[in-house]
Amino acid sequence: MSVLFLIFLLPLSMSAETIKFVFVSDCHYGLSRTFRGHEGVSAQVVSRAMIEKINLLPETVLPNDGGVCGGQKVGMVDFVANTGDIANRMEPGVQTAAYSWKQFVGDWTNLLNVKCNNDNKSPLYLLPGNHDASNAIGWCDPLRPERDATAMAGIFNMMMNPQKARTAESFDFRKDKVRYSFTLKGVHFVFAGIWPDTPTRRWIAADMAQVGARTPVILFVHDQPAVEAKHFINPNGKHDLNPEDRFENLLADTSSVRSRKDVPVRERGELADFLAKNSQIKAYFHGNENYNEFYRWPEDAQRVSTPIFRVDSPMKGVYSSADESMLSFIFVCIDTDTHKLTARECLWNVGKGLKWGEHATIAL
Fold this sequence. Notes:
With 364 residues, the protein is an alpha/beta fold. Helices cover 19% and strands 21% of the residues. The protein contains 6 helices and 14 strands. The chain has helices at residues 43-54, 97-110, 130-137, 150-160, 198-209, 265-277, and strands at 18-24, 32-35, 38-42, 79-82, 124-126, 179-184, 187-192, 217-220, 281-286, 293-296, 307-310, 328-335, 340-347, 355-363. The strands form 3 sheets. A 6-stranded mixed sheet has the order 5-4-1-12-13-14. The longest helix has 14 residues, at 97-110.
């Protein structure tokens, strides 16, 4: 399943300052699944089980695999990143975004206990996913209720800290963008919405200009680089949401292809050009496709060398839905001295402890 791009040059520093973070996505509160021998288990129960395992990390020893911090106890965790689809789309039988957001906040702020130092809990950094956005603006088919922007407003308020908090009623999807960044120990982390469309790429470029070309950048978005046409604005007729065209109007650009099933070659190419031009973006983290993989994209374009990290979903995993032992999140360690990053697949539903799966080390 994974195309690994391992880089093992010299023994990695044992004393350099490190950055450690957990990466998850696609919790899909509102869904249920078969879990640990029981049918119809809610996303809240599954997320709580995953959080319980994340809380084991500080006392867990990493595998001695040649990667960053190999053979060491994890200790502090600098942050936890979640790239969206917190609520599932409110199709018939699925709870409201408001209720899903309430459950998510309660679980991930109260039960998550990893710390970034001796006194402070690790911060949680969020992005919206396509399901969160569709709940806010509507979808191709009727939702129940037709719209509920509670999760989108909640993510915006938590991450953007506006002077006036948004409500489900006042949230404006076209204006209230979740884009933010921070620099930690010499590495710049950029969280940039659902996918890097035209205005988002402009924002990323301006943001990176503030830290300089020598600062390595780690990019988080919800969608994979090989974005689907359906997430762009409907190019047909009234450009609206309708059950015939089935475009979702989630990104700022109008689709260059008329059918949602066609490949948006132009848009993918524009992102490839952007990544090639901005080589300080050293890694791209995303969810949406619901399985773990460390890979390169596009494989046939030599000009793009950005490593891509895709993460599993606890509720909609392509492989982990059928095989619970494959449920995983990603744990990342960065050595700021050697400028190396190691991502490790952490299999969390394999007994009482944690098991390590695929891993990849890249140069920053």
